[in-house]
Amino acid sequence: MAVGFAGIAACESSVCELSTKAAESTVGAEMPDTRLRYKRWKLWTPADITTLGWYDAQDAATIVQATTPGRVSQWTDKGTVGTRHFLQGTAARQPTTGADNINGFNVIGFVAANTYFLQMGSQPFGATISNAAIFLVLNVKSVTESVVTFSLSGSSNAANRWNSHIPWSNGTVYFDNGGTGGANRVSYGAGWAANKIAIMGFIGSVTNSVQQIWEGGVLKVGDVTGHSVTTAGNPLLGAGSGGSEPDTCAIGECIIINGTVSTELRQIIEGYLAWHWGLVGDLAASHPFKLAPPLLPAA
After folding, report:
1. Which domain holds residue 144?
2. What is the pLDDT of residues 225-266, one digit of tens each?
3. Could you please report the per-residue DSSP string of the chain?
4. CATH number, domain at 176?
5. Residue 31 forms part of a structural domain
6. pTM, two decimal places
């Protein structure tokens, strides 16, 4: 059974497929023998695609607690490579586990006043980010702070940032792909209240000429120009470079992709996250996974 899938008791279901096969009758003549074959299915997860990193707070085995119980020194990568962990070696900066939840499922808690944040030990994108995406399930605990929720480029500097403020203290969600003075920025006024839970997707692609913010499967804002960003540090969660502009939020899951993201893949990821976290009600009525989670044929 997939971990934490709200309302789903098993990860496989049976579907009947009608087929025919020639069979000999008792008198030796061939006649069609109609039989039912049963095809088994499994729930789709990010393990079924190539990810740069995948982090799921429902999976207790991926959370390494420090000497102080309830504090996170490592959020282990479940993705394709499996070694791109988010780390925090400074005890005073370690976020929490087991202290908060989304629909009863564990989350990693970040507190701006304490400058809690996590950072990868290396920069997996290399020198440049040209095509990337990050999907998050999070609870915005405060909307009065000037924050960086994540930075894939490891920098808060204008020319090097591939990051987002969810939201800024003015209630606006920003997504920057480099550019000084907000030149390569898209944003929308969310009007968020504290404790808002959301499925968020941020996609930036030079190949597809897009810079987009998605919320619950709905495109909130998008540009038709993609931008390459020179990295200047390692990816961060919960703050900008050096712990600057820390956020107060709870992150349940994070999926990072190095490459382009098709419409189909985006919708599959959104559907997976919605069903995994009991947030199906947050998907748009027209979303292809509003009524059932994404499935794959079982091996």
Report:
1. 48-291
2. 999 999 999 999 999 999 999 999 999 999 999 999 999 999
3. --TT-TT---S--EEEEEEEEEEE-TTS-EEEEEEEEEEEEEE--GGGS--SEEEETT-GGGEEE-SSTTBEEEE---SSS----EE---GGG--EEEEEEETTEEEEEE-GGGT--EEESS-TTTTEESEEEEEEEEEE--SSS----EESSS--SGGG-EEEETT-TTSEEEEEES-GGGTTEEEEE--PPTTEEEEEEEEEETTTTEEEEEETTEEEEEES----EE--S--EESSSGGG-S---EEEEEEEEEES---HHHHHHHHHHHHHHTT-GGGS-TT-TTSSS--EEE--
4. 2.60.120.200
5. no
6. 0.88
